[in-house]
Design brief:
It is a single chain. Helices cover 47% and strands 9% of the residues. The protein is of the alpha/beta class. The protein has a nine-stranded mixed sheet with strand order 1-2-3-5-4-6-7-8-9, sandwiched between helices. Strand 8, helix 12 and strand 9 form a beta-alpha-beta unit. Helix 2 packs antiparallel against helix 3, helix 7 runs parallel beside helix 13 and helix 11 packs parallel to helix 12.
């Protein structure tokens, strides 16, 4: 039993973001392809007449024996071809996962794929203030190291929550703790599945931050991206849930205190602190701001569902979900001047535009909501990458944000200047136009990335390629007269089979990707998909 448990543990620990893992899968894919190319002809029936082994016997009639042999041959072909195809699909997933860090290990992948049953959850009260004061001063400092992508990382343990997770920071050019400046802070929360690396890469945040500072759209600021994966890659909670890791304490209290202790020249003024997130992290950002209103003056909500969609609150029944909806909680909170930027594409299948409109309808002054609801964009990194500069420009449009850093606000129309500099203008849909929008996303055009025509073509082409591999390629290189094959003829046949197997595997991988995208509603156009590939390749630099 011990060796078995050890093997399982070893398997679960395999890293999915490692270049070594990618290379191993690549080598295995090539080797199994070559093996299949060599062995496939052995599954083809002989060109000559039937052998003595195929003669009738008392135990098997000729027709039955032929059927059994055919089943065996095609089973062998499917196995030989299926292995490299599966490995190419895995390779494609690893290449997508590597820059974004959706999951780090096989164990994280297993947790992410595990279904969540409905549970009875109870939100716990946050720890009292003395719990934070009792921790030694050194416990609040983290040691960050450069990771080479424009960010720094530390694995830090919260003194009160006990949560130990990685945290990324992005510092502006020239930052020093003793440089005499005051820095604002933007805390960013990743989606599910994901981790802090995805916000560095997917938003190109080091580049975007420096551009916004250099253009005077925001004062010098620090980006902070904490991990929410207290249970590996299982669905994260945004609040303290009875019997679960205290993620609410970690995000709302410990991370800000750690930043203040590690970077002593950050502002202490509420207007200089913003929290934002994408997807599931967007819900967590708004919910965290509700829980600690004295900390954050601004909130960026990028493609959030209104009701909790992940974590314990999403699996605790409709009543608890309704009580924790962003719009309903916004309407019930005591207004104190908190600002909200809420982004949601109208073709997002998770109705994130409706979330923006519902929050706008629920808000009460002096709180304010700025909606940004473009017609297209889906639930994608392209949307968030394109609108992250818009979020930063919106944040800096309030003079109080500059005042928190001890700087005068720029003169003139901040929005107009940002738009002229290439920042996407806000797509504010009027109240009367919102009612005319469909409650569900418009069906995709036939040959868009999620279109039915695209899926049909992808499936047909993939099946055609597999048909060539399974039914035709095993006969390549054979002589009709049954004579001996030349080395050139044999080598050419093997090379041809290698090519068609790899082509078929690539087409199947693309088809699987298109299907997964359509199911998740991530990218809604080919242009957005291409833009996301370019962004991933830049690694956030």
């Amino acid at each position: 039993m011990v060796p078995c448990l050890s093997d399982v543990s070893l398997l679960r620990s395999i890293p999915l973001t490692s270049l070594r893992t990618i290379l191993v899968v690549l080598v295995l894919a090539v080797l199994t392809t070559v093996v299949a190319a060599v062995l496939l002809p052995r599954t083809a029936p002989a060109a000559t007449g039937a052998s003595s082994a195929d003669r009738p016997t008392r135990l098997a009639r000729p027709a039955l024996r032929s059927v059994l042999r055919a089943v065996g041959r095609y089973t062998a072909r499917i196995v030989m071809v299926g292995v490299p195809v599966l490995l190419v699909i895995v390779l494609g997933g690893l290449l997508i996962n590597r820059p974004m860090h959706y999951v780090r290990t096989v164990g994280d992948l297993a947790k992410a794929a595990a279904p969540r049953a409905q549970v009875s959850s109870r939100i716990e009260s946050p720890p009292k203030s003395f719990a934070y004061g009792s921790a030694p001063a050194l416990a609040w400092k983290a040691s960050f190291h450069d990771v080479g992508d424009g960010s720094q990382e530390a694995t830090w343990t919260g003194p009160v929550s006990g949560i130990k997770l990685p945290v990324r920071v992005v510092l502006p050019a020239g930052y020093r703790p003793d440089d005499g400046r005051t820095y604002n802070v933007l805390v960013g929360l990743h989606g599910w599945v994901g981790d802090p690396q995805s916000l560095v890469t997917g938003l190109a945040s080091p580049k975007r931050l420096q551009e916004a500072i250099d253009a005077g759209r925001i004062p010098p600021s620090i980006l902070v991206f904490p991990s929410l994966n207290a249970d590996g890659a299982s669905q994260p909670d945004c609040v303290n849930i009875n019997g679960r890791p205290a993620v609410g304490t970690w995000t709302a209290q410990e991370i800000p205190r750690m930043i203040q202790a590690t970077f002593p020249n950050v502002t202490t003024q509420r207007a200089g602190w913003m929290i934002m997130g994408i997807s599931a992290g967007a819900y967590c950002a708004a919910r965290t701001a509700y829980d600690v209103p004295q900390r954050f003056g601004s909130v960026g909500v990028m493609s959030s569902y209104d009701l909790p969609g992940e974590g314990s609150l999403a699996h605790s029944g409709r009543e608890l979900q309704a009580q924790n909806g962003l719009s309903s909680m916004l309407g019930k909170r005591k207004p104190d001047g908190m600002r909200f930027y809420v982004l949601g594409a109208q073709d997002d299948p998770y109705s994130t535009a409706r979330t923006a409109w519902s929050m706008d309808e629920a808000v009460r002054k002096p709180d304010s909501v700025t909606v940004d609801t473009p017609a297209k964009g889906g639930h994608s990194w392209t949307l968030w990458n394109n609108h992250f500069p818009s979020l930063l420009a919106w944040w800096g449009s309030d003079p109080a944000v500059f005042a928190a850093a001890g700087l005068p606000a720029p003169q003139g129309d901040a929005k107009a200047k940002a738009t002229a500099a290439g920042v996407k203008p806000l797509s504010e849909t009027s109240t009367d136009q919102r009612a005319a929008r469909p409650a569900s996303p418009v069906r995709a055009k036939p040959f868009e990335v999620n279109g039915l025509g695209t899926m049909i073509v992808a499936v047909v082409v993939s099946l055609g390629a597999l048909g060539v591999v399974l039914f035709w390629s095993p006969r390549w290189g054979r002589r009709r007269d049954g004579g001996k094959r030349s080395v050139a003829r044999l080598g050419g046949a093997i090379l041809g089979r290698v090519v068609v197997i790899l082509v078929a595997a690539g087409l199947v991988t693309v088809t699987v990707g298109i299907g997964a995208n359509a199911g998740g509603g991530f990218y809604t156009s080919w242009n957005d998909l291409r833009a996301s590939v370019r962004t991933s390749g830049s690694s956030g630099k």
